[in-house]
Amino acid sequence: MSGANLLRGVLTGLLVCVSTQAAALSCIEPNVERQFNQWVDSEKTYYIGVGTLTPTDTLPKIPNAIDLNGGFGTKEPITAPFLFSGKLLNGDAGVPFEHAITVSVSCIGPWCGGFPKTGTSGLMALRGVGLQNLTLDMNACPGSIFPAATETTISACIRAGRCSTE
Fold first, then answer.
1. pLDDT for 113-131, tens place per residue?
2. Which of 31, 36, 67, 155 is the most buried (most CB within 10 A)?
3. What is the set of domains in the chain, with CATH numbers?
4. Could you give the CA distance from residue 87 to residue 98 in angstroms, rounded to a whole number?
């Protein structure tokens, strides 16, 4: 095989690998009503809050798909402490809540979520039992933090026990 043909074969193989990986992650467009129903149906306990997040320590590095030594070998989530300041929704006016939480970032293959920027605010579900050791899960697909304006919709869903997704 000539050098040119060998190079062409290698480049074609690389393009197939890259295009396969690029098409592998397909995220559903975030929808707060659908997500609320998933929280309700989960075996885990979620507290729905509207508030602002502030990291309370240096954030660890998230694996980078461009970095060939990006660290995707680990399947364990990467965590960091944050302060949640806002309120927990109860179907009425909500209950003021300011507490330390953990933000947990997970990867799906080479695609990873990310830590929220300082001052990120919105509606989010904090996973945990009781109000201690709450965790906000951030994964490769969006849908962990919704605009604060969705509070009215979710408060109605809390009162009804489910959201209508029609």
1. 999 999 999 999 999 988 8
2. 36
3. 28-160 (2.40.50)
4. 7
